Amino acid sequence: MPHRAPLVTLVARTLRLMPKLLDNWWVEFFDRLAITRVTARPVYVPDKGPDVDWKPSTAASVPRPDLLKLRADDELKFYQSHGAFVHQLPLFASHLPFEANTTGIVTTAGAHNFGQAVSLVLMTRRAGSRLPIQILVDALAPWAELVCSSIMPRFNATCIPAQMGWGAASRHRQLPKFRRFQWKALAIVASSFQNVLFLDADCLPVRNPDPIFDRGAEPFTSTGLITFPDFWASTTSPLFYKIAGDLDMPPVAARATSESGILVYDKARHADSLLLAAYYNYNGPEHYYPMLSQHGAGEGDKETFLQAGLVLEGLRRRGVYQQPTGWMTPGVGVKKGYWDVKMTPSVRGRSEPEKKWTGILIMQADPVEDYRAVMAAVEKVKQTITTPAPRPSPPSTETGPSLPRRTTAPPDEDTFLTDSRLLSTTANLTLEHDPRRRVMFFHHNGVKPDFTRITDAKSRMVAKGNRGEFLRMWEGPRWVIDEFGRDVEKELWEDSMGVYCQLEMAGFGELRGVCGRMREVYGQVYV
């Protein structure tokens, strides 16, 4: 087997921040989280929040579920913990480490799902992206270590061992054992990039995401934070808004819940909201996750990121929080808001004989196209509203009485940057998305795109039809080619065979039979 450079050496080429500074940062990070941690009893929600599909027309009549009850002393502990963490944010956020003016893609992976991260890297490059990729990794199998050291560098992708990030902190204090949902916030914080596109390992870009960060491109230029919607209406407990600082509770129809498999951050502008999201996740499994979802669909980290931005904006408007901006770049850099993508996601799957239909993936929109479509809809609304006319002169007997004045104000585009409730003014319009730029991401929440498990029937990577023939993962290929101008699924198989059929991969027992099965399926389905 060829010599492999240690991951530490490879990572050193990517992370140019001084190791001592990073060590000190992580000690401070976990110290501040530990000192302000929630000491209330674990949150107990007796029932399950309703799974209501989010549509402004139906969500408007849905009351916010109020299933969570806390004892007075526990509520006080939440309130004090949250307030203490927010109070320290201006100082804490002012030295969040990152390499200024850098942009890249970040994901996380471990021994159980590294094959998904391989697919993500391959599809990102096929889509045309040239952004560097950082993969925060936990324990890895030997074959994955080989991929990290010998194959990923060819794709400008770097595996970063988690212990490199917070090794000093773990020597300084006892750290909790992080669960899968908690890794996302840690990965974004740990990344050396200033501008981050975070993708779950099972989320594949099928169009080039690089233009999201182009100079002047909206909505990133004006906000620095982009989130993507899920299918359901919010089930966040009213208690959350109380303990977060007695904030106004938004109506259920204000926005859909978040689908946090895709996040876009400018860590300079949103250092404080990112760290608040990290606080929610640090205290997530027993406290904030059930509070933010009340056991509604997809409970986990999904609501922590956008809610952090909403909370700090709400506190700023109340005059009790001053956002730290002293270190930001003058001009565009001081603009701050958030954009929650308005185009609702859609599902793709395949028909299988026994299960009839299996959901494979969620399709999420290109945020640049989404912004363009919403702004076009706002312009249409403006054209239907007559702005107030100047006060007329007293009526004369010749012209008769004046017409009543229209006082309805047109929607303001800037309001969309910090308050999505204005969506109600355009929700019933058909957003005219450009079909050539509509979908950008395939989030494989149903069947994971992990070719290392292709010989495992339980993975459902491979399925057969009524005549015993192999089926495509995404059905088609006509709709795929019509949508993207190329057979994206075929490209994924070809590039994956280029990795798993290399001679140096054949010696790993867990990959036995993978290359042969891939070639068998490819020969029947894609040739």
Can you give me a brief rundown of this structure?
The protein has 527 residues and is an alpha/beta fold.
Question: What's the helix and strand layout?
Answer:
Blueprint: H1 7-14, H2 19-35, H3 56-59, H4 72-93, E1 99-109, H5 114-126, E2 133-137, H6 142-151, E3 157-161, H7 162-172, H8 183-190, E4 193-199, E5 203-205, H9 220-223, E6 225-233, H10 238-243, E7 256-266, H11 271-282, H12 284-293, H13 304-317, E8 339-340, E9 346-352, E10 356-365, H14 367-384, E11 439-443, H15 478-484, H16 488-500, H17 514-525
Parallel strand pairs: 1-2, 1-4, 2-3, 6-8
Antiparallel strand pairs: 4-7, 5-11, 6-7, 9-10, 10-11
Helix pairs in contact: 2-7, 4-11, 5-16, 8-11, 11-12, 11-13, 16-17
Explain what the structure shows.
By secondary structure, the chain is α/β, with parallel strands linked by helices. It folds into two domains: 7-42 and 63-342, Spore Coat Polysaccharide Biosynthesis Protein SpsA, Chain A; 347-366 and 435-525, no CATH class. It has 17 helices and eleven strands. It has helices spanning 7-14, 19-35, 56-59, 72-93, 114-126, 142-151, 162-172, 183-190, 220-223, 238-243, 271-282, 284-293, 304-317, 367-384, 478-484, 488-500, 514-525; strands spanning 99-109, 133-137, 157-161, 193-199, 203-205, 225-233, 256-266, 339-340, 346-352, 356-365, 439-443. The strands form two sheets. The chain has a seven-stranded mixed sheet with strand order 3-2-1-4-7-6-8, with helices on both faces. It has a four-stranded antiparallel sheet with strand order 5-11-10-9. Strand 2 (133-137), helix 6 (142-151) and strand 3 (157-161) form a beta-alpha-beta unit. Helix 11 packs across helix 13 and helix 16 packs antiparallel against helix 17 (514-525). The longest helix has 22 residues, at 72-93.
